[in-house]
Amino acid sequence: xxxxxxxxxxKSYRVMRMTYDLVMSALxxxxxxxxxxxxxxxxxxxxxxDAVFRYLFGGICLLYGGFRLYRGIKRDY
Length: 77
Fold this sequence. Notes:
Layout (H helix, E strand, L loop, with lengths): L2 H34 L7 H4 L3 H24 L3
């Protein structure tokens, strides 16, 4: 096969994967912020959830969102 085509295909995949990782990390980190700071942001729906569950799930979202951000920046696919 043509190596130029394969290189373009690989580059396209990397750009798509990087974009996906960065967007997903932004959404997951935003969810972490909402869960961790629900009381300060006056979000009654999220503030009414059990505090232990909120902080635990917010922490998990923060860690996983940070991992997705690192992977999107690193671009090692």
